[in-house]
Amino acid sequence: MPNRVQVLFGIQYPIIQAGMVWCSGWKLASAVSNAGGLGLIGAGSMSAEILQEHIRRCKQATDKPFGVNLPLLYAGIEQQIEVLQQEGVKIVFTSAGNPKLYTPRLKDMGMTVVHVVSSIKFALKAQESGVDAIVAEGFEAGGHNGREETTTLCLVPAVVQTVSIPVIAAGGIASGRAMVAAMVLGAEGVQVGSRFAVCEESSAHQAYKQAVWQAKEGDTVLTLKTLTPVRLIRNEFCERVRLAEAAGATVEELKQLLGKGRARKGIFEGDLQEGELEIGQVSMLLNHPEKASAIVESIWQEFCDVKKQLANTDI
Amino acid sequence: MPNRVQVLFGIQYPIIQAGMVWCSGWKLASAVSNAGGLGLIGAGSMSAEILQEHIRRCKQATDKPFGVNLPLLYAGIEQQIEVLQQEGVKIVFTSAGNPKLYTPRLKDMGMTVVHVVSSIKFALKAQESGVDAIVAEGFEAGGHNGREETTTLCLVPAVVQTVSIPVIAAGGIASGRAMVAAMVLGAEGVQVGSRFAVCEESSAHQAYKQAVWQAKEGDTVLTLKTLTPVRLIRNEFCERVRLAEAAGATVEELKQLLGKGRARKGIFEGDLQEGELEIGQVSMLLNHPEKASAIVESIWQEFCDVKKQLANTDI
Q1: How many Å apart are CA B208 and CA B205, to the nearest integer?
Q2: Quick one: CA torsion of B64, B168, B128, B130, rounded to 10 degrees?
Q3: What is the pLDDT of residues A22-71, one digit of tens each?
Q4: Which of A20, A219, A284, B191 has a beta carbon 3.0–4.6 Å from B170's, enabling a disulfide?
Q5: How many Å lie between the alpha carbon of B71 and the closest alpha carbon of chain A?
């Protein structure tokens, strides 16, 4: 019997590849979908034209379901939604914005809509807006993150007991063991970011991938909390933010310090000191390149093995 | 077949009650031990004389194994160790200090020694010092906490793959489901703090317990990061720390602001605005009084039930 997440997307394994800026183009999304998971194209780093091209290529590369991650605060959102409609995209994960503004429209276009949240409060708002499922993303996750700093271990059971729609766990999940842990807490699927961000099909710069493989415990930090909290590998840019915040910088000054295009600079161009190197805490457990299909298979195999072992041990 | 943590302590269930300041006297520790877990007396809020009294009463109240949590940076540590030796205490959990300075002595006295860490680095140091097991405590835990901010979901598997001695998971664990999650990540036992901090046998003030039951997501914060990071319920004191830090306060100024005895004031005297209200993020899931024995039984029962369910579901 498949669970609600498998049924909702029509996928073999409830393993979703996060739609990450500068990492998740058609190559990554189609590879994950072909392997039985759900691949997502990350629209947050794409113009409408580029997004259209990635969707078209993805359709050519796989006949399995795939989706698009759409950050709702993106300036070009209207053009992007037009592209999704034109291309007949069936699955949309929305994030970073108010789901009430867009969910009814996306649902009217016949799409399955999932919203990413970092709190019970926003999980409820998302459910009320009519989404089909929720991604509950904990403090350990890479990239943009919640102000409550609630970890996956605390957030997932709290969201599961609050909403009735399926919950997908995210943050700190890069293995079959972590997937079992998430499912035990009540999730019906997992969204994996970091491990896919550095796989072969990720369009991230090789220098960024190397930096992730080398990252140890404590090497990522949730920074820019006075603007929008974001988890990055510590580098010169992070240090300047720290010094500015310690010196009492205003929001305006921090915005100026951040400027534009730092995620592109870090992830896509490989500028390790001036770029934003978005990645999760779980990077401490990642240290080598892999194919996307191998990641899906390894997570699923470990998930099944660990479940079997659990049943056969006294404790 | 019992696992290594059950064997090490001679306990029925690998559920350890954290030795928490102002909460964990003989009443709580003996209640947990009598219920089949491992109760710990929290020496961090006790003089040597008070500690001796609690150990003696605990011995009268239970014939099951119990232990003492000993913060190694405590000023009265030498007198406390003397008391442990005099009273023949068999199990010591050390925390907040260098295990190399004390482990050999405690081992020579015939004690089983466990050290609490928040990083791989300190887990290795603890293992090298000769401890019998490690508590790996994540960012979501209450009270004093690590600088790396690594969550339980990321920390536990990382520590498990680094050391060979048994690992006990802590931080965010207050249910049988969370216990399954921790064990799946490789832990062989769990240390539960928050849920026991507000149980009937906890010596904490009723007003503190009420504050914990009322705490929602985002209501705890890891603060005083420039001194020693500590997770507290947000209150006037936390806000003053935040303002001081934003204004660039020096370490000396923060020490002065902190002063002495704030944990006592908050937890034991119930001063909700001026006291330090140490508690974990998982407080968001706690909302009513319970007996310590009921907590042990409920965690264990849920742990067994969830394991059984897992074995019988396709996903």
Answers
A1: 5
A2: 0
A3: 999 999 999 999 999 999 999 999 999 999 999 999 999 999 999 999 99
A4: B191
A5: 23
For residue A116, the cross-strand partners are A135
B294 touches chain A (CB under 8 A): no
Do residue A181 and residue B139 have CB atoms under 8 angstroms apart? no
Structure-token pair, residue A38: 């759900």
What's the pLDDT score for residue A248?
A: 82
- Could you tell me if A166 lies within 8 Å of chain B, comparing CB atoms? no
Q: What's the predicted TM-score (pTM) here?
A: 0.98
Instruction: Give the strand order in the sheet containing B220-223.
Output: B143-144, B230-233, B220-223
> What pLDDT is attached to residue B313?
83
- A218/B148 Cβ within 8 A: yes
Which of B147, B178, B310 lies at the smallest CB-CB distance from A307?
B310
Of A14, A121, A171, the CB nearest to B315: A14
A246 contact residues in B (CB cutoff 8 A): 245, 248
CB contact under 8 A, B178 and A153: yes
Q: Return the residue of A nearest to B304 by Cα.
A: A315
Alpha helix segments (H runs only) across chain B: 4-9, 26-34, 48-61, 77-86, 99-108, 120-129, 152-160, 176-184, 194-197, 206-214, 236-246, 251-258, 262-263, 292-311
Q: Is residue B155 less than 8 Å (CB to CB) from chain A? A: yes
Query: What is the token pair recorded at B186?
Result: 């490789």
The interface predicted TM-score of the complex, written ipTM, equals 0.97
- B61: pLDDT confidence band, cut at 50, 70 and 90? very high
* Closest in B152, B246, B306 to A248, CB measured: B246
Tell me the Cα Rg of chain A: 18
